[in-house]
Structure formats: C-alpha cells, structure tokens
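Example 178, ligand NDP.
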Amino acid sequence: MNSPELKQLIKTLAFATQKHRHQRRKDIEASPYINHPITLVDILVNEGEITDLDTLLAALLHDTIEDTDATVEEIQAEFGPTIASLVMEVTDDGTLPQLERKALQIKHAPDLTYKAKLIKLADKIANLRDIDRSPPAGWSLQRSQTYFDWAKQVIDGIRGSHEILETLFDEVYKKRPK
Ligand code: NDP
Ligand code: ZN
C-alpha cells in the first residue's frame, strides 16, 4: 500500500471511530460498535484477499449513515462521490418500516455494484459470526434462526460475485442455531 492510500485508510477509520463513538453492538457484552466495521475490513483483506481501497473505505463507513448523524453530503465532502455512492448502496432507507427494509435488502441485492456486493457479503459474514458466538441480548432461538435465514436470502441474490467470501458465508451459515 502506498502512502496516500494508507493515509486515506487511517483517515476513514478515524472518521468512523468518531461517528460510532457512543454506540455499542447488541451482544451481551455491548462491544464497542467500531469493532464491527473493523471486522468487515479484516474479513475483506485478510480472508477475502481484497485490497481495493474504495471497497475498504466504504466498508469502514458502511453503517455511518444508517446509524450515526453522518449524512451523505458529509461523506461526499470528506471522501468523494464514489465512496458516498458505495455507502448509500449498503444503507437502508431509515424512513421505511423494519420489515420492508428487510424485504428490500433481498430484492435489491442482485442489483448492487460489485464493490457493494463485497461489503454486503462481509457484513453478513460478520453478523452471523457474532450471533453464533453470542446472540444479541434478548434474542430467542427463533429470532436468531430467522436472522440467519434472512441473511442467506440476501446473499443468495449475489452469488457468483466472490468465491472466497461466499464460501466463508456458507461456512458460518452451517452454524445456524438449532
Ligand atoms: P435487528 O435488525 O433489530 O438487528 C440485527 C441487526 O443489528 C444486524 O443486521 C446488525 O446490523 C446489527 N447488530 C448489532 N449488534 C449485533 C450483533 N451482536 N450480532 C448481530 N447483529 C448485530 O434484528 P432482526 O432482523 O431480528 O429484527 C428486525 C425487526 O423485527 C426489529 O425491528 C425487531 O424489533 C423486529 N422483530 C423481529 C423478530 C424476529 O424474530 N426476527 C421478533 C421480534 C421483533 P448492522 O451490521 O447493520 O450493524
Ligand atoms: Zn454492518
């Protein structure tokens, strides 16, 4: 990695860390939220062998618009239109009811650009691994199962995109709670 790319990566990590600083994940230990975007980049680079910078930067930012006060205009001003557009591709429409948002993720998955598909794959791998390790506080067995099945429906819509990541998804899906 050259120096400008390294600087971009660290700038983006710092931005995401700042935006998510008051948030926690849903696991019983309430882990710091930033662990999750960092995990995505770890999966993409060290398991998926993906080094495309736009993909890695957008993965670090993938939950900032959905879950923090970050706006698309802010992301665009800081990181440019390509990254902003990638982040928007993986951002749900927060004005819609939860069930509709879930249905739209399944419907829109096949239409995502290649880089957004990689981020979506890493996101679902990370979330299923988290649930397998320790389900979110208060989740019933059925809720974890429903989540695994929904994630599989999303990923089934982007098959044929990246063999390694799809295999990693299939491996974690085998751990669907029983
Ligand atoms: P949620 O959408 O409420 O939670 C899952 C999301 O939370 C993940 O996609 C992930 O999103 C994020 N997340 C944060 N911490 C964790 C973690 N430790 N492990 C995994 N994911 C984590 O869950 P559901 O999909 O189950 O529910 C959707 C809606 O349906 C909710 O509004 C809920 O109230 C309702 N509901 C569903 C039930 C069910 O059986 N499915 C039962 C009762 C209600 P990200 O990667 O984007 O951060
Ligand atoms: Zn996520």
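Summary: The domain at 3-173 is CATH 1.10.3210.10 (Hypothetical protein af1432).
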